[in-house]
């Protein structure tokens, strides 16, 4: 697994693509948080990072599929998946290695955003008024969200040898998981009956809950369960392709 992990990290950062992806993520956040008037922290009148944690999921919706779209698609395209299957590695080790490499990239992209926290703290008239617990919870939620999107992206990449198709499939699936279930719960047909369960099936309600600074075990179980499910589906997809 460690060999797969190192290979993925080296492949990601050995080209300009990896650096461009992270730079674009930081640039988009910087423009939205400090330049554009509708979302600027400077015009909010209150020292908080709520806009960052509201906007980051939308940016991750595009960024993470771009990071993961080549995870297995390139292996299929170049024919190296069959070679991997002959190595002394289990399918779980291969899938987990690629997944953890993607999560590390997500974590790396989050580290520079600490600058935003420092900036808000310096600009605040009363730094003690900052909700540090809520900010810490939001970062944990954002990392867990990135992990789920990574698992979905890896699964999408295991379905096809076309990286563009994998990218679009990952975007659509991430969108449904984050926005779709919550939107369906608001339909009149589900109001008062299945709306609560539909919200609980989606990511948004759990992410919002953690972002309040309260780490609920139910939210953690949800994130871990969805990640496990997507990785399991990835393993099944790979085995099916080898058998075919």
TrEMBL record:
The keyword Protein transport appears for this protein: no
Listed GO MF terms: ABC-type transporter activity
Main location (coarse class): membrane
Keywords: Cell membrane, Membrane, Transmembrane, Transmembrane helix
Recorded GO CC terms: plasma membrane
Keyword Heme: no
Taxonomy, superkingdom: Bacteria
Compartments reported by the entry: Cell membrane
TM spans (from-to): 12-35, 55-73, 94-119, 139-157, 164-181, 220-238
Pfam short name (any one): ABC2_membrane_2
Membrane topology qualifier: Multi-pass membrane protein
Protein name as annotated: Gliding motility-associated ABC transporter permease subunit GldF
Species: Chitinophaga oryziterrae
Gene from which this protein is expressed: gldF
């Amino acid at each position: 697994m460690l060999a797969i992990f190192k290979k993925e990290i080296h492949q990601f950062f050995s080209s300009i693509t990896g650096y461009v992806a992270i730079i674009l993520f930081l640039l988009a956040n910087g423009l939205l948080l400090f330049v554009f008037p509708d979302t600027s922290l400077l015009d909010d009148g209150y020292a908080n990072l709520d806009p960052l944690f509201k906007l980051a999921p939308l940016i991750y919706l595009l960024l993470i599929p771009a990071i993961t779209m080549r995870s297995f698609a390139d292996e299929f395209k170049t024919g190296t998946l069959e070679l991997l299957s002959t190595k002394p590695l289990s399918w779980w080790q291969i899938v987990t290695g690629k997944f953890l490499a993607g999560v590390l990239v997500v974590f790396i992209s989050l580290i520079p955003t600490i600058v935003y926290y420092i900036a808000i703290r310096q600009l605040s008239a009363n730094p003690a008024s900052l909700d540090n617990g809520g900010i810490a919870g939001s970062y944990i939620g954002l990392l867990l969200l990135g992990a789920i999107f990574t698992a979905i992206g890896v699964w999408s990449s295991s379905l096809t040898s076309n990286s563009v198709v994998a990218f679009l499939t990952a975007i659509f699936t991430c969108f449904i998981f984050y926005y779709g279930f919550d939107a369906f719960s608001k339909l009149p047909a589900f109001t008062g009956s299945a709306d609560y369960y539909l919200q609980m099936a989606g990511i948004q309600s759990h992410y919002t809950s953690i972002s309040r600074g309260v780490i609920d075990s139910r939210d953690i179980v949800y994130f871990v369960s969805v990640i496990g499910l997507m990785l399991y589906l990835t393993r099944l997809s790979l085995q099916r392709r080898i058998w075919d």
